[in-house]
Amino acid sequence: MTTDFAIYDMDRTVTRRATWTPFLLHCAVRSAPWRLIFIPLVIVSMLAYVAKLIDRGRLKEINHRLLLGHNRHPAELKPLIESFAEKTLATNVCPGALRAIARDKAEGRRVVMATASYRFYAREIAERLGFDDCIGTNSILGLDDRVHAKIDGQNCYGPAKLAMILDWLEKSGLQRGHVRFYSDHASDAPVFEWADEAVAVNPHDRLRRLAGERGWDVVDWG
Fold first, then answer.
1. What confidence tens digit (pLDDT) does each residue in 24-71 have?
2. With the CA atoms of 137, 139, 141 and 144 taken in that order, what torsion angle do they form, in degrees rounded to the nearest 10?
3. Using an 8 Å Cβ cutoff, are 119 and 13 in contact?
4. DSSP labels for 158-221?
5. What are the CA-CA distances from residue 212 to residues 129, 130, 198, 200, 204 (Å)?
6. What b/e readout covers 201-211, taking b as 16+ CB neighbours within 10 angstroms?
7. pTM for this one?
8. pLDDT over 90 for what percent of the chain?
9. CA–CA distance, 136 with 168 (Å, rounded to integer)
10. Residues 6 or more apart from 44 whose CB is under 8 A from it?
11. C-alpha angle 146/147/149, rounded to 5°?
């Protein structure tokens, strides 16, 4: 039996604003305010990314280590993740996303989040929004059972996001039916092209142009 899917990007698609840096700042303020002294280094790392000296995955690892620490036990992270998810749902979710999620679930679709953000905190947001599954960038969980500031596998971005969706689908044992995909960014072009129905949400200029060329739907979720 086939399963129909609705797959959503998270940052600036479901949420109005990006979540990774705000999550790190949330954790630092609540658990180790002294780490805020590293903010100038965070800015330097962002400039290095803009200058193409490092890639997005390395940028994440550096800022993770600066603001969250080299490694943290999941029990330490749990209350921070929960409070950040609560704050995100209260202040940073697009109203249109809530309506779309409800509609897709009512249509019987399996609702999946696929995000470049780290899965260890995105999963909590996804569950609170009613998603069935969450695909995201994974962190290494060491033999010490601590979350390390190192990506496990690929950063779930660009072509890697499609590869991770396909890997998840194969391992899930579910048979693909109709796929509807939502995202705000042209970096998700591989998933847009793979999906049966592509929806550009709150698109920036490049994605808006691409959607016009490909005939994809364009929506504003506010």
1. 999 999 999 999 999 999 999 999 999 999 999 999 999 999 999 988
2. -170
3. no
4. THHHHHHHHHHHHHHTPEEEEEEEEES-GGGHHHHHHSSEEEEES--HHHHHHHHHHT-EEE--
5. 30, 31, 12, 10, 12
6. bbbeeebeebb
7. 0.94
8. 91
9. 10
10. none
11. 130
In DSSP terms, 113 is beta-bridged to 8, 134
Query: Which of 208, 183, 194 lies closest to 13, judged by CA?
Result: 183
CA–CA gap between residue 218 and residue 13 (Å, rounded): 12
SS3 6: strand
Q: Dmax over Cα atoms in the chain, in whole Å?
A: 54
Quick one: 2-219 is in which CATH superfamily?
HAD superfamily/HAD-like (3.40.50.1000)
For residue 38, give the H/E element and its range.
none
Q: What are phi and psi of 149, to 5 degrees?
A: -80, 55
How many Å apart are CA 59 and CA 47, to the nearest integer?
10
Helix (H, G, I), strand (E, B) or coil at 8: strand
